């Protein structure tokens, strides 16, 4: 090769104009795809927005309560880089313990209750770190989401804030979840059973006769709280108010929704967690086999509805899957609520999205005691708040505390 055959300096970058144009289009395509993904998945072009509040008939009490809730009257600004993706918020909330607030300053005590069938239920109590500024003894009763107990990060986060403000905090541990509490009967929690929370509340009312009470439920636990309060309205006499966070209201509708292609991964994970929980309690698996339920078939479940069709409704003696789901749903009881109730859902919740939000909207429009707060972001129980890459706070903790403090100020 002669020296004259070597490419000149410009040719070292592009052999000809056609190659240069080819590379330019490729770079343009990659940049366009990145920008599209940033918009469609991370929503980086969106700013924080104020929650949308639905409330029907004018209620002086509810108006006064909402007026004193700064978090509901300001913009919720999720963590900038990834906080506007409901999927990322949902996937991270269970793992980012370090971003949550300080856990409760006091140690919890565990209490045991034996139900009529011999099942043993537990709950944990955190005493307040100081006296509440109102001078009133106030107890926050909490029911966690599916597979939840007092150790869940969202429970510890809320209790950390509440205990330091002077609230006693009580948390139901779902039947079969605590690893250090063996089952005494072949029974696990279900999506809408209120017996456990009812027995816990009765004992807590007796244990703390001078206290005022406020209830809060998360996800499945919120479904249980609303059903507990609505199925026997006289139970509400003990409560100043209640809150429902990220629940689905209609179990049958939720089962169908989780079969959609964009939710099937979540449904598969939930089914596998149920299978693991049953396998951890041989007393349940043995009873299922005694009833003629094929555990081999159940273990092959690929989504939540399949697990419930093969196992749950049969195990608990229901005639059909639909009958089981309808018996577990809180939707029919929302109109029976006669105490202030704040219901919160996020539009980008990948599990309980807008497909279900007509239920709480209708409840809020028809019942003056119910307010529906719909945030644009937050995912399912995520609600990470502020920061560029790492969140500074958790918005839902502030919303729960604001509503709780406002109830105390307005009603006491």
Explained architecture:
This protein has 412 residues and is an alpha/beta fold. 40% of the residues lie in helices and 14% in strands. The protein has 14 helices and eleven strands. The chain has helices at residues 17-42, 60-67, 86-93, 153-165, 195-207, 220-231, 251-257, 264-280, 282-290, 295-299, 304-315, 321-328, 358-366, 395-411; strands at residues 52-54, 108-114, 120-126, 138-143, 168-173, 212-218, 239-245, 341-346, 370-375, 384-385, 393-394. Helix 2 crosses helix 14 (395-411), helix 8 runs parallel beside helix 11 (304-315) and helix 11 packs across helix 12 (321-328). It is globular. The mean pLDDT is 90.
Task: Give a short overview.
By secondary structure, the protein is α/β, with parallel strands linked by helices.
Strand-helix topology:
Elements: H1 17-42, E1 52-54, H2 60-67, H3 86-93, E2 108-114, E3 120-126, E4 138-143, H4 153-165, E5 168-173, H5 195-207, E6 212-218, H6 220-231, E7 239-245, H7 251-257, H8 264-280, H9 282-290, H10 295-299, H11 304-315, H12 321-328, E8 341-346, H13 358-366, E9 370-375, E10 384-385, E11 393-394, H14 395-411
Parallel strand pairs: 4-5, 4-6, 6-7, 7-8, 8-9
Antiparallel strand pairs: 1-9, 2-3, 3-5, 10-11
Helix pairs in contact: 2-14, 8-11, 11-12
Number of strands: 11
Query: Helical percent range?
Result: 25-40%
Oligomer: single chain
Number of helical stretches of at least 4 residues? 14
Question: How does the helix and strand content classify structurally?
Answer: alpha/beta
What fraction of residues sit in β-strands? 5-15%
| SSE string | HEHHEEEHEHEHEHHHHHHEHEEEH
Overall, the morphology is globular
Major beta sheet, specifics?
A: 9 strands, mixed
- What is the CA-CA span between the terminal residues? 95 Å
Record the strand order, biggest sheet.
Answer: 1-9-8-7-6-4-5-3-2
Given as residue ranges, the uncertain stretches (5+ residues, pLDDT < 50) are none
Query: Any idea what the radius of gyration is?
Result: 25 Å
Quick check: average pLDDT? 90
